[in-house]
Write the structure tokens for this entry.
Amino acid sequence: MNFIQTRGCDDTKPKSVTFSEAILSPIASFGGLYVPENLPQLGIEFLTKHLASSYKELASDLLAKFEIDIDDAVIAEALALYDNFDDATNPVPVVKVKENLYVSELYHGPTRAFKDMALQPFGKILSSVAQKKEENYLILAATSGDTGPAALETFKNQKNIQVVCMYPANGTSDVQRLQMVTEDASNLKVIGIKGNFDDAQSALKNLLASDSFKDTLKEKHISLSAANSVNFGRIIFQIVYHIHNYLELIRQDAIVMGEKVYLNVPSGNFGNVLGGFYAQMMGLPVEKLIISSNENNILTRLIQTGIYDIRDGDLKLTTSPAMDILKSSNVERVLYELYGADRTRELMEDLDKNNIYTLTADELCKLQEIFVADYCSDDEGKEYIKSAFSDGYLMDPHTATCFKAYETKTNQNIKSIIYSTAEWTKFSPVIANALTGEENAEDMKALATISKEAKVEIPDMIKALFTKEIIHSSVIEKEDIEKEILKFL
Ligand SMILES: *Cc1c(COP(=O)(O)O)cnc(C)c1O
């Protein structure tokens, strides 16, 4: 299957490209994104057939439906990485929390957050495409915390790929920072930028605009690629677990085949819930897709009013930082599926020029048939962490946002699946504060508090981070970033 462009084609790029091309250079004509030419239809037969399948068998059959230009052996190697998750037979446990409420835990991979679900297999596939083309790629990433560790973990020692990861020196948790600065591989470089996430991102933007940087890459025969969450090579793996979760509920005798369920997803750049949207378009029985966010409630306002408005440009820092976002890039793919390329281009151009777009009443209706949304403040989130804990479930602040929309937006007679995107170990100070009132603890202390309160062991891999050798110690001003990277290359 080939991939086409959300904003149509400007004739500087081919009308359609292969999967390999779409993942190597993910930005399409007019600044749009690549989408599959059509979505394969699964039908109840597909679901029934996979009731007894393993996660990998389901994933491999689903990927086959997209007929992508990647060898079966490479796909098998990529999917084998799920064997390294906590339970090799089931990388995504679905846990019953109370009557009609289930949590799908997407954090059982090597860096303890949902980013591993896609980045683990994606890293293998990107490296194999680069090797086949005999080209070298540089991946630049600015991370607020979860993408960085997951990208480093997946690309370490992969041939034909180098990664430079920039993180805000005072913007990540201790665990997130240690996960990055202790990664030891010659193709990885991790740089702390003095400042916050915006500073890291603007350092990256300046670099991408620099001619001397581009010239150096050319001289060294290195091309730029990207592993960010608009890359369809990540999205494709994020369709699988939505289907897996549905099958899990059938296996647990919670639902019968064909029964509709809510999928309730803590959302930022909209990659996770987009996978659910595609699964529904492909035939998964979904009642509604629920978008949960924090006080950066741009998505809630879009779904409730049809207006995407970021004119005030006001980004709040919350206790669920992976969802602190104004421009939620993957929404564009939904616009394309619902309204077509011409209209998508119009809307996105409005957003680029005026920081706002407005859907028509008919368009809003179509959107609301599929999605509902609500947002949750930090204080509400802490209350949900506390009350879920007293029901026996320990969760992180991103997951907690879903409990608000579960209360306000769902019919609780219908089964809900809430997506848990991070292990408690990654955001321990917030959780310790919710459980005991302990303020501003460092990660080490907060981990110990939670471990004692909840009678859970701190996982060895997390404990080990605090004694591991620091490999990447540079923390620099954002102006010095180019010099630092050229040294590495
Ligand atoms: C990335 C991330 C999210 C947001 O996912 P999107 O696909 O960007 O919507 C939510 N929670 C955690 C912990 C994450 O790392």
About this structure: The longest strand covers residues 161-168. The pocket of pyridoxal-5'-phosphate is lined by residues 113-115, 146, 229, 266-272, 322-323, 398, 421-422 (CB under 6 Å).
